[in-house]
Amino acid sequence: MNDSGPRDRPAIGDTPAATDVALAALDAALAASPPPAQARLLRQARQALADAQQRELDTQARYAALFDAVPDPVSILSAEGVVLDVNRAGIVAYDRPREDIVGQPIELLNPDLPSDHLQPVWEALNRGDTYVIEVTNMRGDGSRFPVEVHSAGFQDRGQPCIVAVARDLSGRWRAESRYRLLMESIDKGVILFDRDLRVLSANPAAHRILGLTGGGVGLNSMLDPEAWIIVDEHGHPLTQSQWPTSRCFQAGRMIRSTIIGLYHRPRGRMLWLSTTNVPVFGNGCDQADHVYAMFSDITELKRNNTLFARAQSLAHIGGWEWDRGLQRLYLTDEARRIVGQPADLEDMPDLLDCLRSDDRAALQQALADTIEHRSSFGLELQGQRRDGHSFWIRMIGEVSAGDVDAARITGTVQDITERKQAEETLRVQARTDPLTGIMNRDAVLSDLGVRMHSPGHDRVAVLYIDLDRFKVVNDLLGHNAGDELLIEATRRIATAIGTEGLLARFGGDEFLVICDLRDQPDQAEQLAERITAAFSAPFQLGSDEFPVTASIGIARAPRDGNRPQQLIQNADTAMYECKRRTRNGWQVFSPELAQRQHDRLQIESRLHKALDGDEFHLVYQPQVNLRSGATIACEALMRWHNTQLGQMRPDLFIRHAEHTGDIVRIGQWALREACRQVRQWQDDGLGLVRVAVNVSWRQFVGEDLARWVRQVLDEFGLPGSVLELEFTERVLIEDAPDTLRTFARLREMGVMLTIDDFGEGYSALNYLRRLPIHGLKLSQLFVEGIPRNRSDVAVCEAVCAIARSLGLGVVAEGVETEPQRQCLLDLGVTVGQGFLFAHGLPAADFERRLRRARELG
Predict the structure, then answer these.
(1) How far apart are CA 189 and CA 295, in angstroms?
(2) Measuring CA to CA, how many Å separate 352 from each of 333, 345, 397?
(3) CB of 299 within 8 A of CB of 322?
(4) Are residues 709 and 826 in the same domain?
(5) Are strands 83-86 and 74-78 parallel, antiparallel or unpaired?
(6) Where is each GGDEF domain found (predicted)?
(7) What average pLDDT score do residues 466-481 get?
(8) Is the pTM of this model over 0.70?
(9) Is residue 191 part of a domain?
């Protein structure tokens, strides 16, 4: 290492050569023997200049001495960062000769500096601040060492310069390493908090004592009130402002040994700590910006000294210890309060007597296992206090530390009564229908399953109840009225069954009743009778009364099913049969009923696809003059042939189609196909043949029938007079205003309107009087009984009289014998159809019939 002293270093901004030149000039002037007065002045000037030179030299010497006396490396830099000077400590620290440093850029000593490193330095210096930075300096041999550089600005001979003092941090780093080693090795927990009580760091002992995962995330969870409860040494809960750390921040002084308890909810663990909190102040701060919390685990000491007597009450936790040798059970005051027992409870059998039998056995087994295996246990137990109130506790126990014979078992009891009651409330809510307060679907399925699989209790019946006309009330008056009706219906059913059945709401307006058949085999039928009787009175909703009845299906186990869903499904099948036949009654399930249900589903499933599969066709039954036998029109009759089901009866599949709603599409197809055929006959030279087509009541409700008829007639270029629409009496009462409008529009087109099977249905003469129809069709049901059955003859006479009085035509259906034809003529009926004249004919056969009639005519 080279060292240069102050004499080898010219002062910054010094110009010694100029002073020496001036002195030499004065000496030369004196040597020329000037006049005395001038010589005296020259000598005075020379002395003054020499004195000034000496003072400058003295100043430089002091500067050099002070400069080199500084123990830290000091560098003088130009505004551009060139080293102008360096002190003796810098030469030693950087292990370089002075001449290798002076005149070089500062990057020689700090090779890691960025290109614009002087910009922030000058920004700070121009503000009058000192600039501080930690960097790594490089020695002459290439080795590095950390420094903290303090830079300040000054002027030298009018030029801005920088003085930079570098303090070696190697010693501090070694001190910090020793500090970290100390923090990691001591058995006391140490946590550093900021003013927001966030955990900035913690040593391994803190993690171990608190039983938390590493990192701020795990430690910060100790501040979560959902996870931890913090109490004082007496078990009283502490607010956040009362925590020792918070008090340390507030007071700005050390808070010495303070005992606190931490209860960890998820693990049910109680931890006692002795903690000291020390504030840390930043430079120039009057408030602590950090606090070190140092603590020790005193849980064992606390347990041994007080036996959990001060377990915090907010968590409702008490302590207990069972000394098997002394046959003595110790309970803290909180533990006695939880189990509701007086001070004379002294041994484990006394505590066991408080528990229900199943839990008593569970605790006895847990204690035996703990003694034998030196294990721990945790149980949830239910018992009864001395005052008769029930309690729920979570009891935790383990063998005392260091107890080789397991002579003492200690633990905690926590009052969990409120949680269990809340769970029971949720369980009840999950099983209860919120509107009616009775069991819901899930609950009744569960209970029925338990009953059906309990030996000796499997003979049960299910009553499936559906309210008739509920939808009418709900749609007419709104959901609030519907809810009122359901609540009242529930009350009526519950009153009817009393304690002999279990009632549940299964769906919207559907209820289930489960009853036991062991002692009374006909119990289900008796309940069904009482329920239907309960619906005999109308329901009062506001100022109006509504007749709402109940249709009930009954299924028995195990005969009708050995699974809840199967039994309910069969009861549902019986209910639909009851609704189809009578309503306001009950029907018992039978295998035959199930087969009909299966057949119905088969038909409806295939019926839905029949139109797309081109499975329908029309046949045409002639309508003839009963006197002459001449064909005057025809009726288009629907036929369906399915590859799996074969040829289906029209009355069967049409009823199903009306039930499913498929009749709308099928009816549209039939109307269009009939008009297409009439157009074809006209094109073949047969003229216009009037065709009658049946129209379902659903076509009036589900579509704009008049618009569809107009569209089809226009499509084939036909007048309305070629079309006759036949409809049943149900159309008359479904929606009278809409029906009147539709009939009026059809009549304007020239379409004939006829009531089919008149007299079978509602016989709504009031509507009949108001509707603009053309005729009636005598039902085959009455025609087949004439002339021998006087009642049928009387009905036919009445229908004919009505028709004559209203100016309507009459067509008789099902004419099969000559006596029937003659009787009808005697009654004034001149048009009929039936097997006496022809079956339903394919279009080609009907066409040949028309051609033969023309040839013969």
Answers:
(1) 5
(2) 18, 11, 15
(3) no
(4) yes
(5) antiparallel
(6) 458-591
(7) 81
(8) no
(9) no
**Does residue 190 sit within a domain?**
no
Does residue 763 have a pLDDT over 90?
Answer: no
> Are 131 and 165 contained in the same domain?
yes
Q: Which domain holds residue 268?
A: 197-305
Please say whether the dihedral angle defined by the alpha carbons of residues 706, 709, 715 and 721, taken in this order, is positive or negative.
Answer: negative
In this structure, the answer to whether residues 635 and 770 fall within a common structural domain is yes
For residues 559 and 473, membership in a common domain is answered with yes
Written as six digits, the tokens of 825 are 């003529």
Query: How deeply is 319 buried, as exposed, middle or buried, from its count of CB atoms within 10 A (0-12, 13-18, 19+)?
Result: buried
Q: Within 13 Å, how many C-alpha atoms sit on residue 743's CB side?
A: 21
Contact between residue 474 and residue 489 where contact means Cβ atoms under 8 Å apart: no
Final residue in a domain of this structure, among 18, 50, 67: 67
Measured over the CA atoms of residue 405, residue 408, residue 411 and residue 415, the dihedral's sign is positive
Q: Which residues contact 499 (CB under 8 A, 6 or more apart)?
A: none
Cα dist. 826→218, 411, 441, 514, 639 in Å?
105, 107, 64, 61, 34
Contact 844, 617 (CB under 8 A): no
CA-based radius of gyration for the chain: 55
Q: What confidence category does residue 853 fall into, taking pLDDT thresholds of 50, 70 and 90?
A: confident
Q: Quick one: 125 and 18 in the same domain?
A: no
Pair (75, 168) in one structural domain:
yes
Task: Give the pLDDT of residue 642.
Answer: 81
CA gap 121, 117 in Å, rounded:
7
Sign of the alpha-carbon torsion through 670, 673, 677, 678: positive
pLDDT digits (tens, 9 = 90+) for 418-444: 888 888 777 777 788 888 888 888 888
Domain assignment present for residue 815? The answer is yes
- 62 and 76 assigned to the same domain: no
Question: Is 310 a domain residue?
Answer: no
Percent of the residues in the chain that have a pLDDT greater than 70, as a whole number: 86
Nearest Cα neighbor of 378 from 386, 390, 370 is 370
Reply yes or no: is the peptide bond before residue 787 cis, omega within 30 of 0. yes
Query: Do 851 and 713 reside in the same domain of the chain?
Result: yes
Number of other residues whose CB lies within 10 A of the CB of residue 605: 10
Q: Tell me, letter by letter, the H, E, C secondary structure of 509-529.
A: CEEEEEEECCCCCCHHHHHHH
